[in-house]
Amino acid sequence: MLDNLKEKWPEILDYLKKEYDIQDITFETFILPLNVQYYKDGLVKLVFTGNSGSSGLQYIKKKYFDFLKLSLAHFLGENTDLQILLPGDASLEDSSDESDEENAANSEDLILERRILEANLDKKYTFDSFVVGNNAIAQATSLAVADSPGEAHNPLFIFGGVGLGKTHLMQSIGNYVLKSNPNSKVLYTTTESFTNEIVDLLGKQKKDQDEIIQFRKKYRNVDVLLIDDIQFISGKDRTQEELFNIFNELFLKHKQIVFTSDRKPNEIEDIADRLTTRFQQGLTVDIHSPDYETRMAILKKHALSKGIKVTDDKEDVDNANLLEALDYIATNFVSNVRELEGSLNNVIAFSKVNRVPITKEFAMETLKVDTTEEKITCQSIINTVAEHYQISAADICSKKRSSDVAFPRQVCMYLCRVYTDEKLETIAKYLRKKNHATVSYGYNEIKKAMETDPSIKATIEVLKKKINPN
User: Fold this and answer.
1) How many Cβ atoms from other residues are within 10 Å of residue 105's Cβ?
2) CB distance 223 to 149 below 8 Å
C-alpha cells in the first residue's frame, strides 16, 4: 500500500496544484516538500521537510489540509485520516513496524533526492565528476566552502568564461552540503529566474503581500544560497535592491552565499557600489580554460560516463585509435568544456549509428561537418586567445592595461574582424569597450605588427588554425 501511494504521489501533487490553482511559489515552498511516510489501515502520514519548519506546517494545515484529503481520496478510492508531521515527530516513530523501518531507510534516499530537487540542483554535478586540471584553486576553495558553509570564504565569487565549469562547481557545493546534512536548506537559482520572480511580483496590479513574504522567506530562510550568472543583474535596480537586502540578512546569520559570473565583481557595469563591495568582501576565484592535459582528462572521463573506457595502453589497437581520436578533439576544440563534451557526443553517436569503431579519421570526418556549420563567434575567439596566452577570458574583457593582457585583447579585436561579420560596436561590447574606435585601432596595430614581426605573424597563424581547423 505504501509503495503504491509513493508511486502515485507526484501525480497526486500535480492534480492538487491544478485542481485548486495553487501558485508556483506556494507549491514549491509548502506542497512539494511533503513526503509520504506512512499508509496503513486508512491512515496517511506525510512529513513536511520544507525550509519554514513548524510555521510552514501550520500554514499547510490551515490552508491545504482539506484539499490534500480530497486529492488523496480521488486517487486512493477511499477517505483517509491524514496527519502532517515534521521529521522526528514522536507519533511518526510510534507508528513504525518492521516494514515501516525498511521503508524509512529507503525514505532517507528519497528525502535526499527530494531535497536536491527542491534546491533546484542537478545531482550529476559533484566534486568527484569535476576534472580539476589547471583549476585546482577554484576546486579546493569550493570544497572548503562546502565543508564549512558560512565560515570559510563568504561570499565565494567564481568567475570565468562560458562553459568552463562555474555552474558545475557551484552545484557541487550544494550537493555536497545536502549529502553531508540533508536537513540543510540549500537553494540554487539563476539571476534570470531571480529577476523574473521579482518582475512577476511587481507586475501584478494587486500586490499580494503573502506572495511577497513567501518570496522573501524563500531566499532568506536558507543555509546556502547559490546564484548563477550574477552579471545579468546589471542595470536592474529593483533586483539589486532585493538582492542587497537578502545578502545582508544571510551574511549576518553566517549563511553561505556563492555567486558565479563571466567577469570579476568590479567589472560588472551598471551595478550599485554597495553590491560590488559585498561581492568582493569574501573570496574571488577564477576558472581557466582547460589546458591540453585537462581537456584529455575531461574527454576520458566523459567517454567513461558513456560506457567507453579509455586507458593509456597504446599496444591495444582499439584503445590507441580512441586515444588518437580524443587527441584530435582536445587539440582542435579548445574553447570550453561544453564544446569538448559536445564534440565527443557527436563522434560517439555517429559511430553507433554507422556501427564503426572510433578512430582519428572518423572523428575528423564527423566533426568536419559539425565545425564547418558551427559559426565562429567573438566569444569563441576570446576564449581561444585567452587559452593560448594562459590568461582568463575575463581578463581580456577587463579594464587591465598591462601588456600581458592588452596585447591579447588587440589580437581578439583583429581576429574578430577577420572571422566574424560583427560591427565594430558589437565587437567593442564583447570586449567591454565603450568606444568602437578602440577596436579599429587594435585591429590596425596587429595588422601592422604582422607585417614587421614574423613571430607575431606566426602566432596569429597558430590562432587561426585553432579558431578554424578546417
Assistant:
1) 9
2) yes
* pTM for the model: 0.58
How far is the CA of 441 from the CAs of 54, 104, 202, 405, 411, in angstroms? Answer: 64, 68, 45, 16, 11
146 and 253 together in one domain: yes
Nearest to 97 by CA among 35, 40, 45: 40
Residue 126 maps to a domain: no
- Report residue 351 as a C-alpha cell: 559511430
Q: Are 63 and 12 in contact (CB under 8 A)?
A: no
Same structural domain, 216 and 89: no
DSSP three-state, residue 98 = helix
Provide the CATH number for the domain around residue 274: 3.40.50.300
Number of domains in the chain: 4
One digit per residue, pLDDT tens: the chain, 470 residues? 788 888 889 899 988 988 888 887 788 888 999 999 888 888 899 998 887 778 888 889 888 898 999 899 888 888 888 999 988 775 655 555 544 555 555 566 677 778 888 888 998 899 988 988 888 899 999 999 999 999 879 999 999 888 889 999 999 999 999 988 888 999 999 999 999 988 888 776 566 677 888 888 899 999 999 999 999 998 899 999 999 999 999 999 999 999 999 889 988 888 999 999 999 999 999 998 888 888 899 999 889 888 888 888 888 888 898 999 999 998 888 778 888 888 999 999 988 888 888 999 999 988 874 444 467 889 989 999 998 898 888 889 888 888 889 999 999 999 999 988 888 988 998 898 878 889 999 999 999 999 998 889 999 998 998 888 76
What single letter denotes the amino acid at residue 324?
Answer: E
- Report CA dihedral (22, 23, 24, 30) to the nearest 10 degrees: -60
Secondary structure of residue 320 in the 3-state scheme: helix
**Residue 410's closest CA among 438, 378, 434?**
438
The answer on 302 and 204 residing in a single domain is no
Backbone angles phi, psi at 79, to 5 degrees: -80, 135
Concatenate the DSSP letters of all residues of 1-24 into one string.
-HHHHHHHHHHHHHHHHHHTT--H
* Prior bond of 290 cis (ω within 30°): no
CA atoms within 13 Å, Cβ hemisphere of 296: 12
Nearest to 469 by CA among 406, 342, 380: 380
